[in-house]
Amino acid sequence: MGLGYLKKYLLRYRRQYIAALIFITLETFGDLIQPTIMSKVIDNGVKRGDMDYVLKLGGLMFLITALGAGFAITRNIISSKVSQSFGADLREDLYIKIQSLSLENIDEFQDASLITRLTNDVNQVQNFAHGSMRIFVKAPILGIGAVIMSFILNPTMALIPLGLVPIVIVIISMNLKISYPIFTRIQRALDKVNAVMREYLAGIRVVKAFNRFDYEKDRFRKVNEGLKNITLKGMRVIAVFNPTVSLTVSIGIVLVLWVGGVRVNTGNMEVGKIMAFVNYMTQVLHSLVLMTRILNMFIRAKASSERIREVFETESSMKVKESPTAFPNGQGRLEFENVYFKYHNNSRWVLEDISFTVNPGETLAIIGSTGSGKTSLVNLIPRFYDVVEGSIRIDNIDIRHMNLDDLRERISIVPQKVLLFTGTIKDNIKWGDKNATDKEVEEVAKIAEAHDFIMSFNEGYNTYLGQGGVNLSGGQKQRISIARALIKKPSILILDDSTSAVDLITERKIRNKLKDYLKNTTTILIAQRITSVMDADKILVLDRGKIVGQGNHEELMENCQVYRDICISQLGKEGVSFGS
Ligand code: UTP
Ligand code: MG
Question: Which residue owns the Cα nearest ligand 1 atom 14?
């Protein structure tokens, strides 16, 4: 239950696991036999002054201890290896699973929580895998074995440890019942700390610019306190229950000493046996404490494993057809037919009744106020999200019927929010096509008007970019991002406001070069500037998720009020002929 899916990982290492089990069993038997040998040394050897006997059995005890230590070391090495490999496998599969989820799924989980699951939660499960041998083998063998050994020593007195067992079981199960929900809450509190931390680090520049560190600090303090309080609560439960177990067993030991003392006085029992008895009681105690500790670890791991399982069991909300068709070898004719779309947590339509066609090699421009749904519209093409109603077709094939990898392979997108990776400029451009030659890299960089500024750096194309491309200006980043999209030689290219940070002259240069380069590529271009869209083959005017105008510049100037307003606000009345 809950942990079942982990079985296959443990099975992968069953040989090592079994070896470790054998070692731990031997080690435990060694522990169990020691007190009996000791009682013999005292009662038969010391009492009678038989030095030979003492030395012989003493030697045996030493041998068993040494062997036990050897077994323990080997077992520890094996079980560390098993649990670490197990954790690494689990992490990798989880990582791959996350990659297969749709953006909608990921939005729902939130990335901070996914990070906690990938790191801390996997660690909890891994720790348990390491400790599990001790709970499944050592603790029961030691506990039951010690009770049996005391029966052999003296059946009547063995009733004392036997009587303790049910009491302790009740205490332990109470402990588990109380702490399980607390551990789940600890993991959730950890999610929150991670979320605030991530947001802070991602926005550190804004925080500094707005001088909002105090605000951020408060936010962090709040979640941090939350984590501390709930963890303390968990600790307190453990702090109460662990000593309770010890106390119960100690009462048993006192009982043994008392009853045993009386019996020794009446000559019914030997001192060595009492000592062995106390030793066995200590072993029972040890096994119970071990069991409580590892059971605590177990429920913590169980809480974590539930969270990991949740990810594994989430089916990507993106349905992929059983036998998808390949990306059509056609020219890249793109059609939207009565498309409706909304985000799952949004009650109103973000796009309503969108229909248009872009012919192969044509450029479609989309203009519209902020929040009108432009980015949402283009995100539907590579299926970052799926339409709710209607359909999108490429060369007459519904994109939902295509192989998803194929589809994304043939579409290049320059996202509105540029994202570069740590590595050289060349690496970043080659992200689009890892087999591209240096010449090709240079060619696309020239089209994106990036070549000149790249060459102005000492290291040229080998200039190393920090995380997210921090050492570049906004416009420079955008141009690298364009080059990266071009090198893929896509059938459909999407430029989402991708020259917003580039000056007008450079932008015009890029536009002209693209026009030549993209003769056969269907292009969708989102822009805020009217000058960027006016010479497109077709322009869509979006307003609050609806198309309010469709046509070329002249047509729209004729019959689309929204377009005319945008045009006049940006260029003035006489601007109509500007730039064309
Ligand atoms: P868009 O992001 O599609 O708008 O959001 P846009 O036209 O590209 O805007 P700019 O020009 O880049 O600023 C359209 C609507 O979808 C919602 C937003 O609230 C917005 O009203 N939205 C967007 C979501 O609900 N969830 C998202 O993840 C993104
Ligand atoms: Mg946008």
Answer: 373
Determine the structural domain holding residue 430 and report its residue range.
417-489
Q: Give the helix/strand (H/E) hosting 281.
A: helix 271-313
- Region 186-206: what's the mean pLDDT? 85
Cα(359)–Cα(332) distance, rounded to whole angstroms? 7
Q: Which residue's alpha carbon is at the smallest distance from atom 22 of ligand 1?
A: 343
Radius of gyration of the chain measured on its C-alpha atoms: 36
- Cα(373) to ligand 1 centroid in Å equals 5
Q: What is the pLDDT of residues 372-410, one digit of tens each?
A: 999 999 999 999 999 999 999 999 999 999 888 888 888
User: Which tens digits make up the pLDDT trace of 294-352?
Assistant: 888 888 888 889 899 999 999 888 777 777 777 777 778 999 999 999 987 777 999 99
Domain assignment of residue 423, yes or no: yes
pLDDT at residue 273 greater than cutoff 90: no
- The CA-based diameter of the chain, rounded to the nearest angstrom, is 121
Beta carbon of 383 within 6 Å of any ligand 1 atom? no
Do 201 and 287 belong to one domain? yes
Query: Is 343 a pocket residue for ligand 1 (Cβ < 6 Å)?
Result: yes
Of the candidates 529, 50, 472, 43, the residue with the CA atom closest to the CA atom of residue 271: 43
Ligand 1 pocket mutation pick from 347, 375, 526 by most atoms within 8 angstroms of CB: 375
373 lines ligand 1 (CB under 6 A): yes
pTM, entire model: 0.72
